[in-house]
Amino acid sequence: PPGAVDVTSAVGDVDGDGAPDQAVVYRNGATWYVHVDLGNAAFGIETTFMPYNPGGTPGVFSVSDVGVAEEVIIVNTGFALPGPVYGVWFVSGCQLFEATLDGGSMDLWQGTGASHSEGFDCNATGITFIEAYDVGGGSWEVRETPWAWVPGLGDFQSQAPSTYTTDMATALAAVGAGSC
Q1: Does pTM top 0.90 for this prediction?
Q2: What is the pLDDT of residues 48-102, one digit of tens each?
């Protein structure tokens, strides 16, 4: 759109019709937008969002498969120590919505500090949030919490986490191995 700056984009099938769609994040003045151009339609849909903490420039991170026909749009919404913060949007009924976690707000954190690390992985059932903490004596605890995507609700629902203890290198590799 005229006046749009800080434009980023990614392509994927966000509405599940088999045609590629383009997800775009941009700023116009002080307002940030998530916009989707649907590949099979002559229109686009968009919504606004408030950056988490404008310490960086928000943008599209990916359009990712979470195990259902449609894909979700993962957007870098800002920055908080130790790294970027992401939000998730989806298309339903020709509208664009922000996804929730267990019916409430949802933020994905990614980054590594001196004694902890956080990341996430998109997979066939949703997103797995991965946390690793230094528990002392050279050991780190890794907790992997699956968030199952429920498309009719636009909600990720927490599942029982798995936890294991390992060394720092293995723990940080587990957090960093995620991809969306």
Answers
A1: no
A2: 888 876 556 788 888 888 876 678 888 888 777 677 888 898 888 778 889 999 9
Backbone angles phi, psi at 142, to 5 degrees: -110, 130
Task: Report helix, strand or coil for 170.
Answer: helix
Long-range CB contacts (within 8 A, 24+) of 80-83: 80/52, 80/53, 80/55, 80/109, 81/111, 81/113, 82/111, 82/112, 82/113, 82/116, 82/117, 82/118, 83/109, 83/110, 83/111, 83/112, 83/118
Count helices and strands in the chain by DSSP H and E runs: 1, 16
For 168, residues 6+ apart whose C-beta sits below 8 A from its C-beta are 134, 138, 140
